[in-house]
Design brief:
Length: about 325
Amino acid sequence: MLLDSFGRIATDLRVSLTDRCNLRCTYCMPEEGLQWLSKPELLTDEEIVRLVSIAVTDLGVTEVRFTGGEPLLRPGLASIVERCSALVPRPQLSLTTNGVGLARTADALRAAGLDRVNVSLDTLRPEVFRTLTRRDRLDDVVKGLSAAHASGLTPVKVNAVLIRGVNDGEAADLLGWALEHDYELRFIEQMPLDAQHGWQRGDMVTAAEILDRLSARFTLTPEVSSVRGSAPAERWLVDGGPSRVGVIASVTRPFCRVCDRTRLTADGQVRNCLFAREESDLRTALRSGAPDQDIAERWRAAMWGKNAGSGLDAPSFLQPRRPMSAIGG
Ligand code: SAM
Ligand code: SF4
């Protein structure tokens, strides 16, 4: 298994399938995009499936989430999902996407074995969507969400990041809309992972503020079963339930102590933490013919070295070299 020196066991693997994206969210990447990984640097579909297979069969991973960049831009996605769903034991398979291409892919992904999706949507107002993502694609995302729900990729979760002065007035509207459509909404505190290094602690809309804003319209009761475990979202029942809302307070109430994640970048590097400044290269071993046991051993060693916490609270905190879009959020 993937044990670290603080006794945590990683069972949840995030796989970034590409660092490219068709949106340009201001809190994630600059308008001109980034220096994308080249084709030879990217893992092939076969290499991804082999690493997922090692994680599942040799290292105890039970959940696999595909992310990016925008994972729907990866041409082989459905085939990767299909091959991962044939692994024994079968892992839970989910996808984090901006939803732009989901209307045309949801059915095929469901048929390939995908279990659930998380769709990122920060606003319901077209002009704010344009400001936040620098693209005019709100309609596509809304259609993608309905398609995911209709395909049975449920529960459909919606991830929202609030930016002060841009969409922070929309928290309650987003929740009302999500409840109406049977989507489970989760707010994520903005983290210092943007490529432009523009994050400012003082500007961040905190979990406490988000809950205040929601409480002005809804009655929120902490969910009894949400004695957090390893789930990053703390959840509240809305107006007595059964609907819920989550808040992921990565900055103000970090969940590092119970973190169960391991990450694989699109170019085959293991990251033991979103905020890690070091990575362990599996691609070179993979391409030089290393057997599964050797790769598994490298992965174990990478996880053993995981830090106790993200270090976000320390004055000495340094942002990782890779931005969120290249790590896989
Ligand atoms: N493109 C896909 C998407 O947007 O869902 C997957 C990758 S994206 C990096 C994954 C998640 O990270 C999204 O929900 C996005 O809103 C979130 N994210 C990106 N930059 C962030 C930041 N600086 N702080 C908090 N969340 C961020
Ligand atoms: Fe793309 Fe997701 Fe980053 Fe937005 S948050 S720019 S959709 S990778």
